[in-house]
Design brief:
single chain; alpha/beta; Rossmann fold; 3-stranded parallel sheet; two-stranded antiparallel sheet; 5 helices; 5 strands; about 15% strand
Length: about 110
């Protein structure tokens, strides 16, 4: 449900988005295309967002990664070590996410998320 809300929010802002509900589907979607921004939840059915962040950053160091995670400081630090640009804590602040995405887009990215 949260994924759909985020996708709708970003599409309403004019961004091109793709979505995936699992670690494996995200890799299959991301790797052939490579996006400017990856927005990940840490709780995936077949892995963690931190693991996915590390894998994506290995293949594309230029991507901006935003990770949604619980309150764990350990998870936040792991994500930042893997290259996440920002770790957004639950409960979600979608206005902050929209601001961050727009900020990246203003830096010259193409707007594919």
């Amino acid at each position: 449900m949260t994924r759909k809300v985020i996708v709708d929010l970003l599409r309403d802002e004019g961004f091109i988005t793709e979505e995936a509900e699992s670690y494996q589907k995200a890799l299959k979607t991301y790797l052939p295309r490579k996006f400017d921004i990856a927005i990940l939840d840490n709780q995936l059915e077949d892995g963690t967002g931190v693991e996915l962040c590390c894998k994506i950053k290995e293949t594309d160091p230029e991507v901006t990664v935003f990770l949604f995670a619980g309150a764990s400081e350990e998870v936040r630090l792991e994500a930042l070590e893997c290259g996440a640009s920002e770790v957004l804590q639950k409960p979600y602040d979608l206005s902050k996410l929209a601001y961050l995405v727009k900020r990246v887009a203003r830096r010259g990215k193409t707007g594919e998320i």
